[in-house]
C-alpha cells in the first residue's frame, strides 16, 4: 500500500510539472499574441486622426480584455501554486502516516513474537505439568493407602501442585491479555488502513479537481485567444475602412476650408470698419437721448409748476373751509356705560341721539327731554379714529403757520383723558396729532424744512408747572413778549424736539408720571390739574425762504363737577376750588367773547391767560365736551352741554397765519437749531418770539401779495 501511495505521489508530481509547462506555454502564447497585436496597432500609424472613432474604442476594449486575461492567468498561477502547496502538504502527511505505519508494524511484529514466545512457554509448561500429574495422584493415593509417614511429603506436593495451578492461572490471564492486545493491534491496523484509503480518495479527488481546473483554464485560454484574434481582425478592418473615409473627408474638406478662409477675410474687413459705424450710431443715440431728456425736464418743470399751484389752491380751500365752519367748533362725545356706574335706576342711560342729524343730542333731565345742537356728536360706538378725523383738519393748519387749540371739557370720569391721551394700544388725539404732523412733514420734505418741538405743563392750584423739567414743582410764570407783538411765552419751560413716534412715547410717559392725580368719588385716578401739551411747528420753504410758525395746544382740563359731587375734603377740597375757579374764569372769557365786550378777563386765571393765544382772533379753536350718559350724572351733563352751546356761539373772526419772507438771521438760526437728535430735556426756555418770526396780520398779507405778484 505504501508503495502504491509513493507511485501515486510520483504521478501527481509529474502531472503538476506538466501543468506548469503548459502554463508556461500558455503565457508564451499570450505574450506572443500581445506582441503581434501591438505590432498590428503600430503598423497603421497614419490613422492617428481617427483616435476618437468607435474602432479605436473597440481596440481599447480588446486591450482591456487582454489585461483581464492576463489577470486571470495570474490568478490561475496563484491557484496552481495553492494546489502545489496543498499537494505538498498531503505528501508530507502521507510520509508521516507511512512512518507511523512502519513503527506500528514493527511494534506489532515484536509484540506478536513476544506473545508467541510466551505462548510456547505456556504450552510447554502445561504439557510438562500434564505429564507430571498422574504420578502425583498415584503417590497421593498410595500415600493414603500405605502410610501416614509421608503426609509431610504429600502436603509439600500438594502445595507445589497448588503453586503450579496458580502459575497456570496466571499464564492463562497473561494469555488473555495478550489476546486482547492482539485484537487491539488488529483494530489499530484496520483504522490505519481506513485512513490510508481516505487519504487516497482525497488525493484522487484533488487530482481530478486539478485536471478539471487545468482543462477549464485551457478552454478559457483558447476561447479568449480566438475571440481576441477575431475582434482584432474586425477592428483592423474597421480601422482601414475609417482611414479610407477620413481620406475621402479630407479631400472634400479642402474646398470648404478655402470658402471659410474667404468668408473670414470678408468679416475681418467688415470688423475694421465697425468702430466708425458704432461711433455714428452712438452719436445719433446720444442726440436722441438728450432730446428726450430735455423733453422730460420741460414736462417735469411744467408738472412741478402745476403741483405748486394746486398745493396753494388746496391750502386756500382748506383754510377757507375751516374758517366757514367757525373758528370755535364744539363737538360732543358720549362715553359708554361701564361697570363703575353701578346698577339700578341711577345707572340707566339718559342720553339719546338724532338718527337724521349727527349734531343733535337729547338729554332726559328730571323726566324732561332737553336737546342741544353742536357741530358734531359722537355716540359711544365711535372710535378714537372717528374722533380724530373730525379734528385733523385743524392739526394740518398748524403746519401752514396757524395757532390751533383743542381742549377737552367735562366732569371727572367722562373720558377726557381717554380722548386726549388714549391707551398704548388705542392712542388718542395727542399721539395721533403728532403722527399726522410727522407724515405731513415727510410728504413736504422735498420743498420744506420743518422742526417740531413739544412742551408739557400743568396748572395745579393756580400754579404753572413744567412736566418735562428736572424740577416739576418749580413755579413758572407767563410773560408777554418784549417785542410788543402781544404774544405770550413761558420762561423756563422745557422743550423737546421730537422726530419719531418713539420720541413722542418717551415725552408722554415722562410727562404723565409727573402729573397730579388723586382718588375721588367719581374716579379712582382723577386728574387734579389742567394738562397742556404745546406743539410748535416751524418751517421754511427751501425754494423761496418763506418761514412759518404754528402752535398746537392740546389741553386736558380737570373735572368740571361740583365740590359736593366729588366728595373732596381738606387738600382735595382746596384743589377742587381752584379747578372750579379756573373753569369759571374760562366761562367768563367765553361770555365776554360771545357778547363782544371790549375787555376780556384772560388774566383772571392762569388757564385762560395761557390760552389767550388760542382763544383770541389769531387762532383756530375746537372744544371736545365729554358726556357721561347715566342718570345720576344728568345735572353735570346738562351743565357741560349748556357751556358747550355758549362756547359754540363765540365768533373769534378769521385766524391769521404767522409767516414771513426773507433770509434767516443769525439769532433766528440759533433759535431753530435743534439741541439734540433724541428727546433730551433742554434747559433753554421758550424764548419770546422776535420780530423775525412774527408780524402783524396786515404786514404778512401785504408781503404775501407782493410775493404772489412777483410769482
Describe the structure concisely.
This protein has 711 residues and is of the alpha+beta class. The protein has helices at residues 2-42, 54-146, 151-272, 274-325, 384-399, 416-420, 429-443, 501-513, 563-566, 571-594, 606-610, 612-615, 634-648, 666-672, 697-710; strands spanning 328-334, 351-353, 360-365, 368-373, 376-378, 403-409, 448-460, 463-466, 475-476, 479-480, 488-489, 496-497, 517-518, 526-527, 530-541, 547-556, 619-627, 659-660.
Descriptive report:
The protein has 711 residues and is an alpha+beta fold. Helices cover 60% and strands 13% of the residues. The protein has 15 helices and 18 strands. It has helices spanning 2-42, 54-146, 151-272, 274-325, 384-399, 416-420, 429-443, 501-513, 563-566, 571-594, 606-610, 612-615, 634-648, 666-672, 697-710, and strands at 328-334, 351-353, 360-365, 368-373, 376-378, 403-409, 448-460, 463-466, 475-476, 479-480, 488-489, 496-497, 517-518, 526-527, 530-541, 547-556, 619-627, 659-660. Strands 1, 5, 6, 7, 8, 9, 12, 15, 16, 17 and 18 form an eleven-stranded mixed beta sheet that branches. It has a three-stranded antiparallel beta sheet with strand order 2-3-4, covered by helices on one side. Strands 10-11 form a two-stranded antiparallel ribbon. Strand 10 and strand 11 (488-489) form a beta hairpin. Helix 2 (54-146) packs antiparallel against helix 3 and helix 5 packs across helix 7. The protein is elongated.
Amino acid at each position: 500500500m505504501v508503495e502504491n501511495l509513493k507511485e501515486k505521489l510520483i504521478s501527481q508530481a509529474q502531472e503538476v510539472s506538466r501543468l506548469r509547462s503548459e502554463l508556461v506555454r500558455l503565457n508564451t502564447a499570450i505574450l506572443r499574441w500581445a506582441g503581434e497585436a501591438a505590432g498590428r496597432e503600430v503598423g497603421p500609424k497614419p490613422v492617428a486622426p481617427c483616435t476618437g472613432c468607435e474602432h479605436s474604442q473597440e481596440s481599447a476594449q480588446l486591450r482591456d480584455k487582454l489585461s483581464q486575461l492576463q489577470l486571470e492567468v495570474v490568478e490561475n498561477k496563484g491557484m496552481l501554486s495553492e494546489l502545489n502547496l496543498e499537494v505538498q502538504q498531503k505528501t508530507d502527511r502521507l510520509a508521516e502516516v507511512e512512518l507511523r505505519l512502519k513503527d506500528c508494524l514493527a511494534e506489532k511484529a515484536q509484540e506478536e513474537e513476544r506473545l508467541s514466545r510466551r505462548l510456547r512457554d505456556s504450552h510447554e509448561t502445561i504439557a510438562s505439568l500434564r505429564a507430571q500429574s498422574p504420578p502425583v495422584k498415584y503417590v497421593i493415593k498410595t500415600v493414603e493407602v500405605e502410610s501416614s509417614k509421608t503426609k509431610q511429603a504429600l502436603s509439600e506436593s500438594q502445595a507445589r501442585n497448588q503453586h503450579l495451578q496458580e502459575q497456570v492461572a496466571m499464564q492463562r490471564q497473561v494469555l488473555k491479555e495478550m489476546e486482547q492486545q492482539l485484537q487491539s493491534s488488529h483494530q489499530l491496523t484496520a483504522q490505519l488502513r481506513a485512513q490510508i484509503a481516505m487519504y487516497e480518495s482525497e488525493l484522487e479527488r484533488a487530482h481530478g479537481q486539478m485536471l478539471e481546473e487545468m482543462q477549464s483554464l485551457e478552454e478559457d485560454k483558447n476561447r479568449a485567444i480566438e475571440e481576441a484574434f477575431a475582434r482584432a481582425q474586425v477592428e483592423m478592418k474597421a480601422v482601414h475602412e475609417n482611414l479610407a473615409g477620413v481620406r475621402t473627408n479630407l479631400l472634400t474638406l479642402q474646398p470648404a476650408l478655402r470658402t471659410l478662409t474667404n468668408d473670414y477675410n470678408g468679416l475681418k474687413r467688415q470688423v475694421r470698419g465697425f468702430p466708425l459705424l458704432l461711433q455714428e450710431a452712438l452719436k445719433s443715440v446720444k442726440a436722441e437721448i438728450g432730446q428726450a431728456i430735455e423733453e422730460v425736464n420741460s414736462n417735469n418743470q411744467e408738472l412741478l409748476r402745476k403741483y405748486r399751484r394746486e398745493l396753494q389752491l388746496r391750502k386756500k380751500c382748506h383754510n377757507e373751509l375751516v374758517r366757514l365752519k367757525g373758528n370755535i367748533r364744539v363737538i360732543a362725545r358720549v362715553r359708554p356705560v361701564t361697570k363703575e356706574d353701578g346698577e339700578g335706576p341711577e345707572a340707566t342711560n339718559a342720553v339719546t341721539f338724532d338718527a337724521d342729524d349727527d349734531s343733535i343730542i337729547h338729554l332726559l333731565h328730571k323726566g324732561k327731554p332737553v336737546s342741544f345742537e353742536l357741530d358734531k356728536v359722537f355716540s359711544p360706538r365711535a372710535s378714537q379714529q372717528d374722533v380724530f378725523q373730525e379734528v385733523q383738519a385743524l392739526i394740518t393748519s398748524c403746519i401752514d403757520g396757524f395757532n390751533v387749540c383743542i381742549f377737552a371739557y367735562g366732569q371727572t370720569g367722562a373720558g377726557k383723558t381717554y380722548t386726549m391721551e388714549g391707551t398704548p394700544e388705542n392712542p388718542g388725539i395727542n399721539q395721533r396729532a403728532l403722527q399726522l404732523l410727522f407724515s405731513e412733514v415727510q410728504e413736504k420734505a422735498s420743498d420744506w424744512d420743518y422742526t417740531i418741538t413739544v412742551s408739557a405743563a400743568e396748572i395745579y392750584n393756580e400754579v404753572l408747572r413744567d412736566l418735562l423739567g428736572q424740577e416739576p414743582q418749580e413755579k413758572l410764570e407767563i410773560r408777554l413778549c418784549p417785542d410788543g407783538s402781544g404774544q405770550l411765552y413761558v420762561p423756563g419751560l422745557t422743550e423737546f424736539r421730537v422726530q419719531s413716534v418713539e420720541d413722542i412715547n418717551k415725552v408722554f410717559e415722562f410727562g404723565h408720571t409727573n402729573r397730579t392725580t388723586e382718588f375721588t368719588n367719581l374716579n379712582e385716578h382723577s386728574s387734579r390739574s389742567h394738562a397742556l401739551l404745546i406743539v410748535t411747528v416751524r418751517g421754511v420753504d427751501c425754494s423761496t425762504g418763506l418761514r412759518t410758525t404754528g402752535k398746537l395746544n392740546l389741553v386736558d382740563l380737570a373735572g368740571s363737577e361740583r365740590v359736593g359731587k366729588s366728595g373732596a375734603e381738606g387738600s382735595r377740597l382746596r384743589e377742587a376750588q381752584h379747578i372750579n375757579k379756573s373753569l369759571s374764569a374760562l366761562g367768563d372769557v367765553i361770555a365776554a367773547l360771545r357778547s363782544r365786550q371790549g375787555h376780556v378777563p384772560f388774566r383772571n386765571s392762569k388757564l385762560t391767560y395761557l390760552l389767550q393765544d388760542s382763544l383770541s382772533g389769531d387762532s383756530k379753536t375746537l372744544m371736545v365736551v365729554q358726556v357721561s350718559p347715566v342718570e345720576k350724572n344728568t345735572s353735570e351733563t346738562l351743565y357741560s352741554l349748556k357751556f358747550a352751546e355758549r362756547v359754540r356761539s363765540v365768533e373769534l373772526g378769521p385766524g391769521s397765519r404767522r409767516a414771513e419772507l426773507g433770509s434767516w438771521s443769525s439769532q433766528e438760526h440759533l433759535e431753530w437749531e435743534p439741541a439734540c437728535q433724541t428727546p433730551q430735556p433742554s434747559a433753554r426756555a421758550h424764548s419770546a418770539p422776535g420780530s423775525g418770526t412774527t408780524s402783524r396780520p396786515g404786514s404778512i398779507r401785504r408781503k404775501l401779495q407782493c410775493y404772489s405778484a412777483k410769482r
